[in-house]
Specification:
Strand order of the largest sheet of chain B: 6-4-13-8-11
Distance between the termini of chain A: 27 Å
Shape of chain B: elongated
Order of helices and strands of chain A: EEEHEEEEEEEEEEE
Oligomer: heterodimer
Order of helices and strands of chain B: EEEHEEEEEEEEEE
Largest interface: A-B, 48 and 45 residues
Largest sheet of chain A: 6 strands, antiparallel
Radius of gyration of chain B: 19 Å
Number of strands of chain A: 14
Distance between the termini of chain B: 18 Å
Strand content of chain A: 35-45%
Helix content of chain B: under 10%
Chain lengths: 191, 186
């Protein structure tokens, strides 16, 4: 493989100071870079490598019977971080998109053991509460058992778009906890 | 981050002509490159471009019942570096992988269970991706579950499923399949 010779083709400048907000930069080849004070020493990193967040629900919770945002205000939210160096997700607010582009989202919520005919609905909605993706799972009509609903999709997003997980179930049921019950957002590219 | 001036900004090693494992190289800009002897002439390619694997079930398959068990996806739709061996994916380099599984079947009655999962050695004792639902009637039913998983080089992700009672999977490229996609260093 032969390469063209480049002279400092990136050109994003020095690392950012400790208080600097997340800042994007698009280099002359179209690659998007980001830097944020206090994260990775303020150094510039390729957005596709570092704009990822992942959390799961660790503490016990109970499903709501009407569709509500799964955030702190409703005793919900994903309370344990796996990785989120640039703070894309907060339990109080959900996901806030830091850089425009194509993003991939995954949510998984479950109920441990439900009565027969139970159901669980999970969705991701925008800041106005509009659906952007949803999945319902249905329980056995005859057997009490667990359910897991998984929302997984990609979509183009704008900077500062807000997305929140929502949930509802057929009754107040103990929700699933552990690493399998999670939310993630992943920047895939400029789209 | 400051960069020196480069005359060869991605000075990858020479193409591989020996060995049987994937080799990786991080260029000065932080991009991960990979190469494997015998694949594409052993040339170096960006990991984010080529570390993608998709397999589906082609032969008839009765999905496991009784407990969550491994299922074999027997046909590669695309997997130039052979990252999946028919039941287990192995990460060739550390990074963030988007892993997804779809299970389709045709229920023979209502109230039948179907679940699809992925288990990883990266999370002890826990599945990393999964979904589970029940049938409403004797009709086709399916699920898809996906999520990003941070993996170290050599860590594995297994494809697993359960149905109650045992159901035949719907086979073919778009029906019962799994994918594994490297999406960055994480």
């Amino acid at each position: 493989m032969a390469f063209v010779n480049y002279t400092d083709y990136v050109g994003h400048g020095a690392s950012l100071g400790a208080a600097a907000p997340l800042t994007p930069y698009t280099d002359p080849t179209g690659e998007v870079w980001v830097a944020k004070g206090g994260v990775n020493g303020g150094a510039w990193k390729k957005a596709r490598d570092v704009l990822h967040c992942s959390y799961y629900r660790n503490t016990a919770w109970t499903t709501g019977t009407s569709s509500t945002a799964f955030i702190t205000a409703n005793s919900g939210g994903f309370d344990t971080v796996v990785s989120d160096p640039y703070t894309i997700y907060t339990q109080a607010a959900g996901i806030t998109i830091p850089v425009a582009g194509l993003w991939h989202f995954d949510i998984a919520l479950g109920i441990a053991t439900a009565t027969a005919n139970a159901w669980l609905a999970v969705s991701l909605r925008d800041a106005l509460g509009n659906f952007v993706w949803a999945q319902n799972t249905i329980g056995s009509g005859t057997t009490a058992t667990g359910l897991i609903a998984n929302v997984s999709f990609s979509r183009p997003c704008l900077v500062n778009d807000v997305y929140r997980p929502y949930q509802s179930a057929s009754a107040a049921i103990a929700g699933g906890t552990g690493v399998g019950f999670r939310i993630s957002a992943d920047y895939l590219g400029t789209g | 981050m400051s960069y020196p001036l480069y005359a060869d900004y991605a000075p990858t090693p020479a193409p591989l002509t020996s060995g049987s494992t994937i080799q990786s190289f991080v260029d000065p800009q932080g991009d991960v490159w990979v190469a494997l002897n015998g694949v594409r002439g052993g040339n170096w390619y960006r990991a984010i471009n080529v570390l993608h694997s998709r397999w589906y079930r082609n032969a008839a398959l009765t999905l496991p019942t009784g407990s969550i068990q491994a299922i074999s996806l027997d046909t590669a739709a695309s997997d130039p570096y052979t990252l999946y061996n028919g039941s287990v994916f192995t990460a060739p380099v550390a990074g963030l992988y988007l892993c997804g599984i779809q299970i389709l079947a045709t229920a023979t009655a209502s109230a039948q269970r179907i679940g699809g999962y992925m288990y990883t050695t990266a999370v002890a004792g826990n599945y990393c991706v999964g979904a589970q639902t029940y049938t409403a009637s004797a009709a086709p039913i399916g699920l898809y579950a996906a999520g990003p998983v941070v993996l170290a080089a050599g860590q594995t992700v297994a494809t697993q499923a359960i149905t109650t009672p045992a159901l035949a999977a719907n086979t073919g490229y778009n029906n019962t399949y799994a994918h594994f996609d490297y999406i960055g260093t994480g």
